[in-house]
């Protein structure tokens, strides 16, 4: 019996695949240890794919025709260590009968925490406050009754663009901050699970968590008009690219903030920079940006007239130790599962 070859594009915090290798179930193709966790070059990926039954990837590995052609007919499964899969051409992969695994649910709480973190950072003026301290300017800005003031979440309207698992985890974190209400949009028929004990108790207590009613405008624009804090938590696809664009930003209140922890492409960066420059909105908290990680010091979001209104993080949403381990385990188990080699499956068969 030939042992399936697996291309592992990144070192990940898990032992699952190493155990499978030690048990002789798979043969792993990995980058040299010295390359650490860095993304492999495209040429390394393409030259090592031929003959592989599986590929373990991250967000930076684009799965397109050239990837699949390089792999050839042996490829049975692609497993990505991410919940998002906009880097994978799904229809094409499906048309070739290849399975795809991703890592939903295990990162909901971690990403929700970063959404809350960004909301607090940007409303409480942390970008300008920390810059003031770091640059030795604190002595010039002693405490005054109005220094570094910003709005509280209490009493405000929260808007969630998208109402998937991460949005629902975020709701649970936000409610103790006492927002006035939470509005959401969703493209799916599924609203939140009304059987969920937490939401059931919110409803019973009359806390308003509502899908925004469609009035004259599309749902996102209605939400933009009403929300004080907008969280972007949609998948990136053709219909959500630049869902936050010029029109959306113009509809927002000048006192409102936007938080994005989904994918950079959901927000039109040029339009956002303009909106911040023109005081059309109050600020932005971003864990993701179009074109990341190529954001250099001269990026417009870091320019002197914009940077103090922006909390910018380098895509750390899922980055708790526990979450990244769970994602890595799930990535490897998805791969082994698709090949019929999962540890538990082996045990069941005994
Ligand atoms: C994902 O999983 O899609 C995140 O963006 C990275 O954790």
From TrEMBL:
A Pfam family annotated for this UniProt entry: 2-Hacid_dh_C
Keywords: Oxidoreductase
GO molecular function, one term: hydroxypyruvate reductase [NAD(P)H] activity
CDD domains reported for this sequence: GDH
Domain D-isomer specific 2-hydroxyacid dehydrogenase catalytic: 6-339
Gene3D superfamilies in the record: NAD(P)-binding Rossmann-like Domain
Family assignment from sequence similarity: Belongs to the D-isomer specific 2-hydroxyacid dehydrogenase family.
Protein name in the entry: Glyoxylate/hydroxypyruvate reductase
Organism (species): Kalmanozyma brasiliensis (strain GHG001)
Taxon lineage: Eukaryota, Fungi, Dikarya, Basidiomycota, Ustilaginomycotina
């Amino acid at each position: 019996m030939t042992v399936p070859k697996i291309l592992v594009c990144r070192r990940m915090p898990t032992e699952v695949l190493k155990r499978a290798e030690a048990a002789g179930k798979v043969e792993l193709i990995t980058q040299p240890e010295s390359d650490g966790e860095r993304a492999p070059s495209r040429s390394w990926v393409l030259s090592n794919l031929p003959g592989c039954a599986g590929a373990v990837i991250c967000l930076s590995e684009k799965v397109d025709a050239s990837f699949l052609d390089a792999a050839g007919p042996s490829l049975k499964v692609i497993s990505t260590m991410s919940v998002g899969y906009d880097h994978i051409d799904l229809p094409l992969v499906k048309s070739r009968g290849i399975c795809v695994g991703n890592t939903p649910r295990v990162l909901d709480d971690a990403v929700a925490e970063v959404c809350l973190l960004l909301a607090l950072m940007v409303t409480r003026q942390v970008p300008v406050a920390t810059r003031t301290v770091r640059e030795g300017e604190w002595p010039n800005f002693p405490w005054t009754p109005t220094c570094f003031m910003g709005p509280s979440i209490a009493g405000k309207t929260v808007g969630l663009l998208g109402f998937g698992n991460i949005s629902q985890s975020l709701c649970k974190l936000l409610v103790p901050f006492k927002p006035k209400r939470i509005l959401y949009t969703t493209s799916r028929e599924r609203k939140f699970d009304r059987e969920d004990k937490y939401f059931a108790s919110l409803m019973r207590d009359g806390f308003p968590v509502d899908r925004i009613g469609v009035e004259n405008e599309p749902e996102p624009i209605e939400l933009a008009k009403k929300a004080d804090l907008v969280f972007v938590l949609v998948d990136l696809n053709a219909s959500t690219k630049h869902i936050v664009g010029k029109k959306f930003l113009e509809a927002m209140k000048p006192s409102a903030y936007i938080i994005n922890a989904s994918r950079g492409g959901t927000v039109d960066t040029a339009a956002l920079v303009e909106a911040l420059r023109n005081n059309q909105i109050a600020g932005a908290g971003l864990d993701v940006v179009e074109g990341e990680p190529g954001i250099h010091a001269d990026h417009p979001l870091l320019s002197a007239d914009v940077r103090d209104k922006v909390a910018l993080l380098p895509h750390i949403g899922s980055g708790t130790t526990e979450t990244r381990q769970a994602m890595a385990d799930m990535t490897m188990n998805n791969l082994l599962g698709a090949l019929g080699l999962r540890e538990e499956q082996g045990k069941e068969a005994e």
